[in-house]
Specification:
Shape: elongated
Strand order of the largest sheet: 6-7-1-2-5-8
CATH class: Mainly Beta
CATH topology: 10 Kd Chaperonin, Protein Cpn10, Chain O
Order of helices and strands: EEEEEEEE
CATH architecture: Roll
Number of helices: 0
Number of domains: 1
Largest sheet: 6 strands, antiparallel
Structural class: mainly beta
CATH superfamily: GroES chaperonin
Number of strands: 8
Helix content: under 10%
């Protein structure tokens, strides 16, 4: 897949959600929530500032990030679900 997001946008792919609870109960697909954790697939150049300079994005390809539940735009690329969101929609970078 070749994609290059513009400015401070980031393309992420959701990580698989839990299929079992800690007690061993299997969660059916209809009851699962979409995970808010994702792997960064592509990163834009950065945000253009008023003085014409570009502030680079703080995350890099391969980082695992957390984002808001309703953030971004879902798109299908090469038959796989991805999300395009702005850097400001990211909540944290995890060490997973």
């Amino acid at each position: 897949m070749k994609i290059r997001p513009l400015q401070d946008r980031i393309v992420v792919k959701r990580l698989e959600g839990e299929t079992k609870t800690k007690g061993g109960i299997i969660i059916p697909d209809s009851a699962k929530e979409k995970p808010i954790e994702a792997k960064v697939v592509a990163v834009g150049n950065g945000k253009s500032l008023k003085d014409g300079k570009v502030r680079p994005v703080d995350v890099k390809v391969g980082d695992t990030v957390l984002f808001g539940k309703y953030s971004g735009t879902e798109v299908k690329l090469d038959g796989e679900e991805h999300i395009i969101l702005r850097e400001e929609d990211l909540l944290a970078v995890t060490n997973a």
